[in-house]
Amino acid sequence: MAACFAFERFVLDTSERRLRFEERPVDLNARYLDALALLVRDPGKLVSKDRFLDEVWRGVPVTDEALTQCIRTLRRQLGDDAARPRFIETVPKHGYRFIAPVEVIEEAAPVPAGASGNEWREFVLMGSAGTAGGAAAGAVGGLIYGFAAASSSVGAISVLLVLLIVTTLVAALGAAGVSFAIATCAFARTRSWTWLILAGAAGGLLVGAFGKLLGHDAFTLLVGRSPGDITAGLEGLLVGAATGVGSWFALRSGSLRRSATVSGLAGAAAGLLIFLLGGRLMFGSLELLAEAFPNSRLRLDQIPHLFGESSFGTRTSLGTTMLEAALFAACVVGAMVIARKRFALS
Questions:
Q1: Per-residue model confidence as pLDDT tens digits over 232-256
Q2: Please, which pLDDT band fits residue 138 given cuts at 50, 70 and 90?
Q3: Is the entire prediction scored with pTM above 0.70?
Q4: CA distances from 160 to 90, 145, 154, 280, 293 (A)
Q5: Would you place residue 280 in the very low, low, confident or very high pLDDT band (cuts 50, 70, 90)?
Q6: Boundary residue ending a domain (68, 83, 105)
Q7: Are residues 215 and 85 part of one domain?
């Protein structure tokens, strides 16, 4: 009987008792490896619960939860989703079926690095998807702030459009830096939490620092003075790190809803830290612009009312900062999850 089985970009070598994604090892304990081998040896065929218990646990008395946990772990390590399975399909009350095409190979030869261009494909897709997600987050914020500003400004439509375009572009730029930095895991051949968080933080730091430098120079050149402490590297670092946390969880979970929720919570925590450190995100920066240039048509007086304040204060600053960071992280990671599922990246 052949000892090696290939499916998508995975190779299961049963003689060496190891699973590899390309040439990277995938961590599985002995029983879970046996369960995967049992499934891939008979692709497309039902493997009953009793057969799992007989051939994997070999008569050791266990509950159904042990098998459920085994399948859940296999799906997580394969990047599979129980709701829309690519590898392991549940047959309710009976067992499981391996549904991906399986190729029997003679030996598990390592895949040459960069030979298939998969790293570049993953890098571009994940970076682009995250950028699109960030742009979507910026568009949502732009519409909210734009309608608020338009309700108390002359030339309402132009104010709305300008704010929508500005917030979308700024968010897309920030998301590009964070997303493409996180996507470098394709070249680093690691999806460890440390890499993803540090990469996201580094990308956010660079974009934030560059954006503040460019913003200060642009305003100084055009109007002779800077608006002050607009969003900078610190804010970018914290939001990027939160997005890295969300992307790490997304790789473990594969669920869009759970990944977006965890990312949003991580983003909200980053927003809280930004507030405590005296930083600002988009609304805070817009408020600085309105204060620095009182003759402009930028008016955001309606937003503080949502937080029970008559003007920009502590609750408004905290609330908008946490919400902006949460929305950004959730949209970036959510877009990455959608792209991963759509283009079958593992």
A1: 788 999 999 999 999 988 877 767 8
A2: very high
A3: no
A4: 49, 8, 11, 21, 18
A5: confident
A6: 105
A7: no
| Claim to verify: residue 170 and residue 300 sit in the same structural domain | yes
Contact 244, 199 (CB under 8 A): yes
Three-class SS of the chain: CCCEEEECCEEEECCCCEEEECCEEECCCHHHHHHHHHHHHCCCCEEEHHHHHHHCCCCCCCCHHHHHHHHHHHHHHHCCCCCCCCCEEEECCCEEEECCCCEEECCCCCCCCCCCCHHHHHHHHHHHHHHHHHHHHHHHHHHHHHHHHHCCCCCHHHHHHHHHHHHHHHHHHHHHHHHHHHCCHHHHCCCCHHHHHHHHHHHHHHHHHHHHHHHHHHHHHHHCCCCCCCCCHHHHHHHHHHHHHHHHHHHHHCCHHHHHHHHHHHHHHHHHHHHHCCCCCHHHHHHHHHHHCCCCCCCCCHHHHHCCCCCCCHHHHHHHHHHHHHHHHHHHHHHHHHHHHHCCCC
Return the closest-CA partner of residue 38 out of 30, 29, 47.
47
- Residues 183 and 220 placed together within one structural domain of the fold: yes
Q: Is residue 242 part of a domain?
A: yes
* Tokens representing residue 206 in the block: 């660079």
d(Cα 274, Cα 270) in Å, to the nearest integer? 6
Q: Side chain identity at 195, as an amino acid letter?
A: W
Q: Are 225 and 250 members of one domain?
A: yes
- Is residue 137 assigned to a domain? yes
In this structure, what token pair is assigned to residue 335?
Answer: 């877009």
Which residue range(s) make up the domain with 139?
118-342
Pick the last residue of a domain from 105, 133, 154.
Answer: 105
Question: Which of 108-122, 220-234, 276-290 is modeled with the greatest confidence?
Answer: 276-290
Q: Can you name the residues that pair with 11 across neighbouring β-strands?
A: 6, 20
Residues 170, 312 within the same domain: yes
